[in-house]
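Backbone geometry:
***
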Amino acid sequence: MIKKSKEHLDSVNETYTLHFKEAFKISCLMIAGGFQAIIHAICPAVFTTSASDKIKILHDKVSKR
């Protein structure tokens, strides 16, 4: 597990701390987008583009890594 973690960190050229911060930001965006999508499913007039906007932000953020 430690060896694979080290290999992953090397492959993305990040320290553990930097990787933690970036992964945490990404996970928060995903969670927020998920809640917005659930609320949108219940009431379509609310968060009409929020979830898809989050997906675009996440795609850009992850693609640049």
The chain has one domain: 2-63. The longest helix spans residues 16-42.
